[in-house]
Design a protein that fits this description.
It contains 32 helices and 7 strands. By secondary structure, it is an all-alpha fold. A hairpin with a 2-residue loop joins β1 and β2. It is found in: Membrane.
Amino acid sequence: MAQTEKKGGLLRKSSASKKPLKEKVVLMYDEIFMTEDPSKCNPRFWEELFLMKVNLEYLEGKLEALDGEELMKIKDNINCLFQHCIQALSEEHPIRVVNALQTLCALIRGVHQKNKSTSGFDIINMLVGFDKAELCMKNLMESLDSLLCAEGSESLKSLCLKLLLCLVTVTDNISQNTILEYVMINSIFEAILQILSSPLSRREHGYDAVVLLALLVNYRKYESVNPYIVKLSIVDDEATLNGMGLVIAQALSEYNRQYKDKEEEHQSGFFSALTNMVGSMFIADADEKISVQTNEAILLALYEAVHLNRNFITVLAQSHPEMGLMTTPTSPIPMTPVTPLGTTPPSSDVISSAELPLDADVQTSNLLITFLKYSSIVMQDTKDEHRLHSGKLCLIILTCIAEDQYANAFLHDDNMNFRVNLHRMPMRHRKKAADKNLPCRPLVCAVLDLMVEFIVTHMMKEFPMDLYVRCIQIVHKLLCYQKKCRVRLHYTWRELWSALINLLKFLMSNETVLLAKHNIFTLALMVVNLFNMFITYGDTFLPTPSSYDELYYEIIRMHQNFDNLYSMVLRLSTNAGQWKEPASKVTHALVNIRAIINHFNPKIESYAAVNHISQLSEDQVLEVVRSNYDTLTLKLQDGLDQYERYSEQHKEAAFFKELVRSISINVRKNLAFNTLSQELLLKEFSTIS
């Protein structure tokens, strides 16, 4: 018996030379693409259509093959199909609903592909017609809302979210997608919250719901009142906020786990020696790096939650007992070599039971720890554009956290100690830290460690000035809180001081190259003022008097760097060039550091001469410092504990516009290739006649 094959909507017998037969659904699509109303000859046409398994590829291809004029000729039939899809969403039979949802996805994508150059209004007219748009879109949104909130099929809910993601990402710039006006008017915000607050729904659909919410929040956010922004900012339901936090933590943990697996795999392999030598984590072959794709969509969701909702700050410190209880999603995650940026849903083993303990001694984790570990990975390599964007967004999130009073309270809480194993970039001049030797400390120590790590590891030709500025600002904001609340943090401050001095040294060594691209004096001034903060207020927040002595020791020991900096800024501030003003600000900021150096250096030299010692030990220098504080005169500098608060609209609008555009493109790609397969959906309803 001849084998029957199916390809591109055609049925053909492999042994026959006859003209191939078309599937019935394909024949019905062909009728829609005629100018005549298909229901004239067959009154049951629309009823029968939604019982047929959708052929997405054929329907989209047919739409894309038509030119604008041909499409206009069948506009009435396209409108009719769109309206009947919406009507079918209210049907009792799930198969009709599934097919209607699939058809809507194909229609929206197909019409948009054909009308990329036209305005959104033309697309609305082509899909539904101007005269019926308001009512049809209202009915569509109400049906989707009902399906998402109902206790019915999880597969239907999943498909509703896919359709909404398809609708939102149909244009690269979501703010130009005028179809979204109807999504603003007919809000599905409560439906999204319901998914996030229910453990079962959250496990199945949490990822898509969170990404959808993050995108909707960014629709024309600077131009008009976006109801999703308003509503997200006032959510105070604990279950909902914790649910959102869990989804984000699970996605970030999956990234961390994948990275760790690849790291271990390659460190144990042939290329581990080469990996360590070049300071790169993964080497696939001689010249190819392997890395795990960053997830900017979930990071954007975390940013919007932290930035917009004060109540979400409490979620950052919530422990996550639920993380090990992931169930297998309804639809499988496609196994592709490289998953599109910002779209990878967490796999079924998002967080294994092994992820919860940070190591054998610590049995809990939380969203902030997971985020800090994620940040320590993506901030290692800023040469790649996506990682640069991810690194920047991580620092923006940390900026928002560092400004929040409540966040600072739990960051600095002595009763909330954690062992946070951050990823450190392999460098030839330092050994890999032993994870088991990490102490349990307040979470702010991990934030400071992350900032120090970034400062130390990114002094390179392609200098990431913007990230350095953000990094120093975060440290400054944390110090301002410590000074204000007199928090004496037991931290290895010497590591920070050493990193800052080495940064100044790098700026001076590369003055010519860096000044061609950046105003390095802005950064130098911020670094000098951090030292001024320690000098002026250190006695209120450094852990012990000896810590304050060590600060002076470090300044005196490294005085040559401060002397060189003073010479450089003095030279530029006395010339009538473009750097005169910014350089002169650094000159004035160095007054107390220079006073310390000029006061103690002669005393140290005198001590050495009197005691016939050629080189003083640290303890001997500290003895000189302690006995000569009384005669030191410092100037009081104003505004050291003041800072400009973060403002998205005025400074970051362009960055977020480009970021959301990138996420939109990649969410759409992921939907197009991987997530609309029907087999699993229809298997669920296979008993329906």
